[in-house]
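Give me structure tokens for this 212-residue protein.
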Amino acid sequence: MLSIKNLTKSYNGRTIFKDLSFTVAPGEVLTIVGPSGIGKTTFLNILAGLIPADGGSIELDGKELTIDGTRQGSEVGVIFQDFNLFPQYTVTENITLAPRIVAKEKKATYTKTAAELLADLDLTEHQNNYPFELSGGQKQRVAIARALAMKPGVLAYDEPTSGLDEASTERVTSIIQKLQSRNATQLVVTHDLPFAQSLNGKVLDFSKDVER
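Here you go.
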């Protein structure tokens, strides 16, 4: 379970959010909605350990995660809006890089995991392609596979349908639903309300439900 308690963040004297508290059960999808600039991505970056919070706590499966912006663990896997794939590496190399270098996994382990993820996300035929050779939807699936390769406790998406066509959006929805059926805990930040409504889970509206 993911538990957020009294999380607070300010920039230059402006409160982005304060005393933000909620829980996400294992296998649950929480969709975070609201207009641009309201703090959704800031929250996601704090959750990922990329920037510090001013107060509060984040707990995952009974373990408290640091909120000072220095966290090095892979407890939270984030799929960023612009994918952040390494252009000099193939699809397989993008997926296996962190397990190989960060997690120090054996080659047999990360190779097997990558092959399973490639098959599961219908990317096997693109395993030797470079990012510039992929469509937006394919890059999105590679980014999801790369995050899953580190076996995170929570998977978080930042505007996963931004710039995607209808077919690719439906594919992303299908992937999220498939992972939910496998008990994956997921957070989805989006301003795409039809997409948010297509997901089976709770909704947190940053414009209405979050104190400032």
